[in-house]
Amino acid sequence: MIASQLTAADRPTFYFIGMTTARSSIMKVFPQWAEHLGLGPVPIKGIDCKWHDDPSVYRTVVDFIRRDPLSLGALVTTHKLDLLAAARDRFGFLDPYAVLLEEVSSISKQDGLLCGHAKDPFTSGYSLDAFLDPGHWRRTGGELCILGAGGSSLALTAYLMKQKPRAEWPARLVVTNRSAQRLEAMRRIHEIINPGIPVDYVLAPAATDNDRVVGALKPHSLVVNATGLGKDAPGSPLTDAAVFPAHGLAWDYNYRGELVFLEQARAQQENRDLVVVDGWVYFIHGWTRVIEEVFHRPIPASGPEFDALSRIAAAAR
Q: Count of alpha carbons within 13 Å of 291, Cβ hemisphere only?
């Protein structure tokens, strides 16, 4: 039961709301980051919820953090949409992206208010910028295919639509998902924020449906696994028969787990001339953006201090 994971903190404490939190590298990385950043002896504790858990579970977790004076806040993964849908009334402040995307990845406290932030647009955007040449889309005419239409997918599209100039748009955006509900939710938000990027929303209930979409992409296109498959659940959104775009890129948001999608991409890396990227940089940006909010301590997204945090994380990985 979730109550067994929630005990009053006896010192300032930071939480990780996920599914298999004990397996995450952050459990080794955060104590070293805390020392480097001068945060003090703050422990990190995991809170594991089921995938699409009962709304009462999310309300219980949020109420615990809100009421416990030494519980400083939390990073939320996997449950970002469901948690806010269940406990929206508990928050005294939601940032504009949290309102737009209807999710929270960061829970913090400020001036007596429980605050929710959606940091994924910056997490995914900064991570994309770390490996993709700003002139890639204009130079190649490549397309962006995102497998999965959940919160992290929507966040990446929001970053492109709200933060990037026309010269840095893909020729086309294709989003696939197993259910129509998520696709329609994304379409509604895009109707508000899309400045003109062509978008195809593809219902793909089977992995073979995703195979067909990926196989039809132009050369130099980027394929993103944003489904959670390979970490939160076994498998891949593709079958082994999928063919990645020539001279393209394959990016898995995951950095731990079975990572079947990454294995599939690496099997074609030489023949298809692929750039293959895992979720490690995404992991670092995701955590540093939330730590910045929870501890009210600015952390740059690049430069010497970010590089130092990256080295610390790599050593503890």
A: 26
- Enter the tokens of residue 175: 């989003």
Q: Which one-letter amino acid corresponds to residue 281?
A: V
Position 152, amino acid: S
Q: What is the pTM of this model?
A: 0.87
Residue 252 in contact with residue 230, Cβ under 8 Å? yes
| Edge-to-edge strand ranges of the sheet holding 199-203 | 199-203, 173-177, 144-147, 222-225, 249-252, 275-277
Q: Which is the CATH superfamily of the domain at 2-118+281-316?
A: Leucine Dehydrogenase, chain A, domain 1 (3.40.50.10860)
**CATH 3.40.50.10860 domain span(s) along the chain:** 2-118+281-316
CA 40 to CA 18: how far, in whole Å? 24
pLDDT, one tens digit per residue, over 267-309 is 999 999 999 999 999 999 999 999 999 999 999 999 999 999 9
Q: Which CATH architecture has domain 122-278?
A: 3-Layer(aba) Sandwich (3.40)
Alpha helices (H) along the chain: 26-37, 55-67, 80-87, 96-101, 120-131, 136-140, 151-163, 180-193, 207-215, 260-267, 269-272, 280-295, 304-316
Spatial neighbors of 96 by CB under 8 A, at least 6 apart, are: none
